[in-house]
Design goal:
By secondary structure, this protein is mainly β. It contains no helices and 23 strands. Strand 9 and strand 10 form a beta hairpin. The two termini are about 25 Å apart. The N terminus is likely disordered.
Length: about 300
Amino acid sequence: FPSHDTALQIIGQKSVVEMQVSQLNKTAPCGLGDIKAKLFSWGVNFNGILGDGTTDDKSSPVQIGDTDNWAKVSCRNAGFAIKQDGTMWSWGENYGGTLGNGTTVNISSPVQIGLNSVWVDVKTNGVHAFAKKNNNTLWSWGVNYNGILGDNTTVNKSSPVQVGADSDWAEFATGEGFGAAIKENGTLWIWGNNYDGVFGNNSDSWPADNRSSPIQIGSDTNWAQVSCGEYCMAAIKNDGSLYAWGENNYGILGDGTTDSRSSPVQIGSDTWKQISLSPENNQASALAIKSRGIS
């Protein structure tokens, strides 16, 4: 597909409300488009990731299904979306049960995950996924290497299992080999693979420090937002201060070095509103929005 160094309008509507971009060179972008919340996708259609019932690549947006009630979307090797009625759907590559539908068969169009209509958010980073229910419980499924599913096992799951027993999760994110979440009390938790100090607990002992259930990062109670890269993290506190730690390939942590960090370090002294880390080290980058503008 041709590249461009200036912005182009992609979908012929003026009200795209949510976007997700999947792994470069393997799968394709997908997004929510137009005021009626229709779902569109385009790009490389590896294992049916575009969700249009085919495996043919698309160089312009195609609608996924014929409904107009989608509310949330997340995609990489597989696509996940939640409808306004709280049902959750998946499609694409189903390695290790990634799609959460009880099978390991690839699917090129959306299939519902279970029968529940209680889902409010979903995020994926490859071959596993996390989702939150409207009772603030956290659930996971897919490949469970190094305990990334957080269910106190290392066994793959082809349907959702609960992460711990808590029902006070507010925000969550997923990296390549770990998961992270913020509770309603502002504490920050992590589990999975502690490669290069991503646990933020002043240790980079791998695999000895891997955990298959959530452990708290420090004792602070003022975390507001979290984002995960491949093996790094960034998080914003209630006061807008930004912190990062873990693997620092290409300077993705933004601390002026390329040194990995095993505990959170503050990034500058500005006030930040939102942070997003890329999921791939060979494409390591971060984007953040300040409280008054874009960085």
